[in-house]
Amino acid sequence: MNIKKNISKLFFWREQKYIKNKINAMLSVAQKSGLVDASSREMIENILEFSHTLVREIMIPRTDIVAVSTEAAIDDIIHEVIASRHTRIPVYRDTIDNIIGILNVKDILMFWSKPMTKEDLIACLSTPHYIPETKNTHLLFYELKENKKHMAIVIDEYGGTAGLVTLEDMLEEIVGEIRDEHDGNVTDDRIIQSPDGSLIFDGRMEIEKIEENLNIDLKKGRYETLGGLILDAIKRIPVSGEK
């Protein structure tokens, strides 16, 4: 074990935390003095947090990935692409753990006037950009820009697909959620208000977002989502409708 190296890391972490706390204190004073508004302060705080955020904290999880299989019929693939409203779709062979390329919607527009074959589909694909779950988001941001990529496939420790992350996901970490004309209502659709006034949260919603919405502090642990917190608390998979 390199004791000197570990001690250096400890002091570096403490220094970074000290600097972050000092900046937050300065922002608080600046806001109270009217030098910055709440939204500007939040953006600056998000930028500070962004440099310490890992890809696995912001990625779209495997279960939520919209992807198409090379085994599907061309008409089904085109229908899925249109229905998804995404500009880029991962394409896999056999299993989602074997993503062979990224399909850009604009590349299939040329086939509206003529039949599209599987060979045409494969020719349209761009090479996937693979990254580990532990990659730092601000490093990935510049990496994607440098390689002119808009999406990265996140790989777990076993080499399987853990999720994906886009440039938009990373920008939203700084400026807040980005919505376009296809996104519909501006409210978070992961939160549903019941007739009795109670709230229903999506199990995949981040703990931090729930704390912000309810203005509470939840138990911290080795999880990022509400589902992870519940599994940690009851040590089993809950039954549907359980309270």
CATH class of the largest domain: Alpha Beta
The CATH architecture of the largest domain is Roll
CATH topology of the largest domain: CBS-domain
SS-derived structural category: alpha/beta
Shape: globular
Estimate the strand proportion.
5-15%
Helix content: 40-55%
Number of strands: 9
Determine the number of helices (DSSP H or I, runs of at least 4 residues): 9
Radius of gyration computed on alpha carbons: 21 Å
* Strand ordering within the main sheet: 1-7-6-5
Please, what is the average pLDDT? Answer: 78
The end-to-end span amounts to 47 Å
Largest sheet: 4 strands, mixed
Please identify which CATH superfamily of the largest domain we are dealing with.
Answer: CBS-domain
Unreliable segments (pLDDT under 50, ≥5 consecutive)? Answer: 6-13, 181-186
Number of domains: 3
| Assembly status | single chain
